[in-house]
Specification:
It comes from Stichopus japonicus (Sea cucumber). This is GagPol. This protein is mostly helical. It folds into two domains: 19-91; 94-188, Retrovirus capsid C-terminal domain (Non-ribosomal Peptide Synthetase Peptidyl Carrier Protein, Chain A), CATH 1.10.1200.30. It is built from nine helices and no strands. The protein has helices at residues 19-37, 44-54, 57-63, 77-90, 94-102, 112-123, 132-143, 147-154, 161-200. Helix 6 crosses helix 7 (132-143). The protein is elongated, with a radius of gyration of 27 Å.
Length: 206
């Protein structure tokens, strides 16, 4: 049977200016690593040892400063994760997170799906609360590269996030379809010209 090495997640950067986001990404990567290696079903002591082995020395030093209600909590995986989460989320810089969010634009060559996914991820640490969907909608309009689709969205009086995403997807699909038709038409025209050219050639005489 073929086997392969599953790389561990990169260490947590506890000095990150966006620590809440960094921990969220680390935790997701660690969860996937545990599931892929089978560690997720093992005992607490092994899971905590694995966590401390991959999280990096600065984070281990932080772990050593944690206080526990019960000594056994220090070797209980969920308790340890919770402690890191409290620390990292407590250092969240909302102003910085919102700055990153509000300067996010669709990059050259980036798909709309990738752009929207990025906005949703960034919004999670911005504490927008009940305004989250409307602010993602607004960022789509402001940050998208296609000016024609932007104008289409701005014509909608009561545009929701779901409607905005649906409209952009439909517009991009129509554009892609039209492009394929244009390519096919040009190919057909080229074939016709080739046939006419061949027919116009004088017959070879023996």
């Amino acid at each position: 049977m073929a086997t392969f090495m599953i790389p561990p997640p990169p260490p947590l950067d506890i000095y990150s200016s966006s620590l809440a986001t960094s921990f969220k990404k680390f935790k997701q990567a660690l969860t996937n690593f545990e599931l892929a290696t089978g560690i997720a079903t093992r005992d607490n002591s092994l899971r905590v040892a694995t966590l401390l082995a991959v999280i990096g020395q600065p984070a281990v030093d932080l772990y050593n400063t944690f206080t526990w209600a019960d000594e056994a909590d220090a070797k209980t995986y969920q308790k340890v994760i919770d402690q890191f989460e409290v620390h990292c989320n407590g250092h969240a810089n909302t102003a910085y997170e919102r700055y990153i969010y509000n300067t996010r634009v669709q990059r050259e060559g980036e798909s709309f799906e990738s752009f929207v996914t990025s906005l949703k991820s960034l919004a999670e640490t911005c504490e927008f609360e009940t305004l989250t969907e409307s602010l993602i909608r607004d960022r789509i309009i402001l940050g998208m590269k296609n000016a024609n689709i932007r104008q289409r969205l701005l014509r909608e009086a009561h545009l929701t996030l779901t409607q905005a995403i649906t409209i952009v997807r439909a517009a991009e699909a129509a554009t892609a379809h039209a492009s394929e038709i244009a390519k096919s038409t040009m190919s057909d025209i080229s074939d016709v010209h080739y046939v006419k050219h061949e027919r116009a050639k004088p017959s070879e005489t023996r």
